[in-house]
Amino acid sequence: MLIANEFSGDIDALFSAVHALLSRSTEVRGIIGCRARFVPGYPERTAERSVELVDEILRLMNLTGAVPSLLGSAQMSSSTAPSKSPGAQAIVDEAMRTDTVLPLYVAVGGGLTEVASALLIEPRVADRFTLVWIGGHADPKRPAENNFVIDPLAAQLVFNQFNVPIWQVPSDVYRTCMVSSTELQAFIAPYGAIGTWLYDKLLEDPRKHIPDQVSFGETYRMGDSPLVLLTALTDLLPVSANPSASDQRTSSSRYEESFAPYLNPDGTYTPRDSGRKIRVYKSVDTRLMFSDFFAKMRVNYDGCEQPN
User: Fold this and answer.
1) How high is the mean pLDDT of the chain?
2) Which is one GO molecular function term here (predicted)?
3) Domains of the chain and any CATH numbers
């Protein structure tokens, strides 16, 4: 599994990464720090800031050196030229491995720049991994979902030009992944240095201090958490004797398989009645997803000394 996310952007990416690293059933082969649309204080180096945050997570979890942190790509400027980066190259390298038959998941909670660039660097990888993407809308007429907007050209390329297997969690589903601030205070903050750090990051979220915005309530959307639910918390795990990724599922999360739509430049899409089918989730099991995360924090960090 490779994780690619805008860790310097939405705070939920940090929580999702920690959950993934605590999950024994997946092997995280690398974490790609991707570009965000805008980060107060880091307007020109959002990808670099993402990598810094990944490095801090790995340090607090005593995983420095065990899991690579990789810099992501700049926004694509052409549909024929990749935006090369260590992150994009890591996707190519993992997908082209011949020493394992286990499936590769590329779990993306932001834009698709690194995935699109990997496909342009080495087109043969298209059928050698499954893209799990938090992004897009379920309604074909709704334009410009946030993760699409990060790199529209990349999203169009992945959907329209390559036969990549896709598991999509659209906005109407990831918006249901809500937790309360009290839950995070009770089930995350007390557990280890990483729990305290995550909760502090939540309190420091710079968007809470931007003037003239609406007041934030007591809930937070953890929209990137399905990346862990759909890869680690499955009914059956692929093994060397039965490596099929297509059979892997979480029975309590509902999806439909439909023909991959044609993505338009404005983020709307045109349905198609032929071509490859992709998995589009209609609901995710938030009870299992968050209870598992909270339990893993307690099991791994209960009794750990808290930072001063």
Assistant:
1) 92
2) purine nucleosidase activity
3) 2-178+222-283 (3.90.245.10)
